[in-house]
Design a protein that fits this description.
It contains twelve helices and no strands. It is an all-alpha fold. The chain folds into three domains: 97 residues; 46 residues, no CATH class; 149 residues, no CATH class. It is rod-shaped. The two termini are 74 Å apart.
């Protein structure tokens, strides 16, 4: 085959494929609309052919569609609709030579059209069982699966920020703690979505479980902080100070109020009031470690 014949054959094949795609994409459109798009594709192809070679090109193009009426060369009738298996086979064959970006674009388009498990309408029954269970929704409620990517992105961002805040707070509470996270939650999620296998899903579940216990323990540890604070301030209760002063007996040289203030200062120095923050953080840390080690 000469170079000229090879080029024409390639153009014929490419044009035929485009015509088939138009037929599929506009199968539900009015016949006039579909014919206009088909005519546009043919005109675009003819622009690449020399005038004296256009008749031969059209004849070769018609050979790709045996059901066409050969007399209707200028504006061909719509090609015969292909079966689902034929379309799938053509798509697989065409995708074999594409790069990952082109394949991803096709997958996204199929999903937007309701194929690939992530359609633009309500989710198919059975695909969303776990989500329905978590949301406590019955099977009679339609879920718009096209909103899943936006929901997932928002939840990942929230969880990643909470993960960072929680572990930063834990390092402040217990700088030398043995309990540490393996890696940021954002990286764990990204690794799970970009890697095959069940191991990464197990790692994500473990990371989420650890984060849940850590956050819960620190929140619950606020009560521990309150108990420590109550114990530390109890000796400085005015009634306690007054009782201590009265126990020591009266003085004819110093009035009661002055003696109470002196006793308060004495108690403060003995208690080393500056260690209150340390004791509170230590109490929270012990509470968190107890829950984390026993989960």
């Amino acid at each position: 085959m000469s170079g000229h014949d090879s080029n024409r054959a390639d153009l014929v094949a490419a044009t035929a494929n485009r015509l088939r795609m138009v037929q599929v994409d506009f199968a539900d459109a009015e016949e006039e609309v579909r014919a206009e798009y088909l005519h546009e594709q043919i005109e675009r192809a003819l622009a690449e052919v020399l005038p004296d070679q256009r008749q031969g090109f059209l004849v070769a193009l018609m050979d790709q569609f045996p059901r066409w009426d050969a007399a209707a060369a200028d504006v061909p009738a719509a090609p015969a609709a292909l079966s689902g298996d034929d379309l799938a086979s053509q798509l697989i064959a065409a995708a074999a030579g594409m790069d990952e970006a082109a394949r991803a674009a096709i997958v996204a388009r199929l999903r937007a059209g309701g194929l690939g498990g992530f359609g633009s309408g309500a989710a198919a029954a059975g695909d969303d069982e776990a989500l329905r269970r978590v949301l406590k929704l019955g099977g009679d409620v339609a879920l718009h699966a096209d909103r899943t990517p936006a929901l997932a992105a928002a939840l990942v961002e929230f969880a990643a920020q909470l993960d960072q805040l929680a572990w930063n707070a834990w390092r402040t509470i217990r700088p030398n703690a043995e309990i540490r996270r393996a890696q940021p939650l954002r990286e764990t999620i990204a690794h799970m979505l970009a890697t095959d296998g069940d191991a990464t899903e197990a790692q994500l579940r473990e990371a989420l479980a650890t984060l849940s216990v850590l956050v819960g323990a620190m929140i619950h540890g606020i009560r521990q902080a309150g108990l420590v604070a109550e114990q530390r301030i109890a000796p400085f209760d005015p009634r306690n100070v007054e009782n201590l002063v009265e126990t020591e007996g009266r003085s004819i040289w110093v009035n009661k109020e002055t003696r109470m203030w002196s006793k308060y200062v004495e108690l403060w120095k003995a208690a080393d009031g500056g260690r209150l923050q340390h004791e509170i953080l230590s109490a929270i840390a012990q509470h968190v470690e107890a829950l984390m080690n026993n989960r």
